Amino acid sequence: MMEGQFEPLDADEVLFVNLGRVLMPNATFKVGEFLDALAQAVSEREAEWADENEGWFGDGLECEVLRFGNQGWQRGKVRLRLEFMPETPPPPKLLETRRAGDARRAERLDSRMEDLYRPSRSRPEDYEEEDLDDIYS
Fold first, then answer.
1. Is the separation of the CB atoms in 21 and 27 below 8 Å?
2. How many Å apart are CA 11 and CA 82, to the nearest integer?
3. pTM of model > 0.70
């Protein structure tokens, strides 16, 4: 069983639903198109559909709810939405990937710079006289 979380989908996001499809003639559609089709189907079945019923599919419909763990009724709004739960975590965003790569490159560069500027000989007696001649010539 998956241990993910459902996340709301935006109206312009696109779904591909091959099996178990309802209301939509095509397998690929926008979330907003599905919600519009659902609103249309509901309105056709309801004898007294009013404009305020559109709240189910838009900004929300005024309501009260009796929720588990709360004491008494709570006023608010309710609306229908589509949610999605990914099977695997999403890949990192491009900017995050670039930053991680930049950090790795900076670490490698720092390491190279340390090697470059680290004296190979730490004491003056480690230098031979001919080495000093090369420096001053």
1. yes
2. 9
3. no
Asked if 33 and 61 sit in the same domain, the reply is yes
Tokens 């709360």, residue?
A: 70
Q: Determine the length of the chain.
A: 137
| Claim to verify: residue 108 and residue 75 sit in the same structural domain | no
**What's the number of domains the chain is made of?**
2
The 10s digit of each residue's pLDDT in 15-55 is 999 999 899 999 999 999 999 999 899 888 888 888 888 88
Q: Tell me the three state secondary structure of residue 14.
A: strand
Q: Which residues, listed in sequence order, are joined to residue 8 by a DSSP beta bridge?
A: 83
Place of tokens 């003056």: 124
* Three-state secondary structure call for residue 76: strand
What pLDDT, in 10s, does the model give residues 67-92? 888 889 999 999 999 999 998 876 77
